[in-house]
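Appendix C reproduces, verbatim, an entry submitted by the partner laboratory led by Prof. M.T., so that reviewers can inspect both the input and the predicted structure.
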Amino acid sequence: MRYPNKINKTICNNKISHSNRGLSLESDLNITNEYYRDNKIAIVYKKPTPVRCVETECIGKKTIIKKAFYEMPSTTDYNGVYKGYYIDFEAKEVRTKAFSLTNIHEHQLKHLFDVREQGGIAFIIVRFSKIDETYMLDSKVLNNIIKNGEKSISLDYFKKNGCLVKTNYHPRLDYINSINMLYFGGKNEHKKNIE
């Protein structure tokens, strides 16, 4: 086997790009959801954003979208079913030690509250990327924070009132375990299905 004798300078580039910020969490959730589906633990998918194409151009065998617009505001990032319960959540990644509520749109909050009111499981998942910790916070708790007029939620508040979402190899980001802790009295029943 031949190994290259020079280091690829593009790999060692120290420039930080913010264009893909949040994709680390999204990638972890997508991998986790695939694991849950494959192991018949839960059925959860990322919701597509409703976009209408207005103008396209064909170049060879490829079609390129030239103009498009959002048909309606998207609700939340993920939805699905676990243990017969509808689950719906928004996922955000922040670089600070506080989560600004401006990161979630009003229509998304209303959607989460409506899901909870109908008996579904609704929450947010927030990754604090500087310390590489991810927390889940129930929409009912989130609603109380908003009613109190708060503009942001501190990391300490997440630690006291939320649930740490553990990072593993399989599943990558075990938020079902956190759902079990918050909604089902701490029973980690999906482990039985795996073992």
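The helical segments are 23-38, 106-117, 139-147, 155-161, 175-183, 190-194. Additional entries are available on request from the coordinating office.
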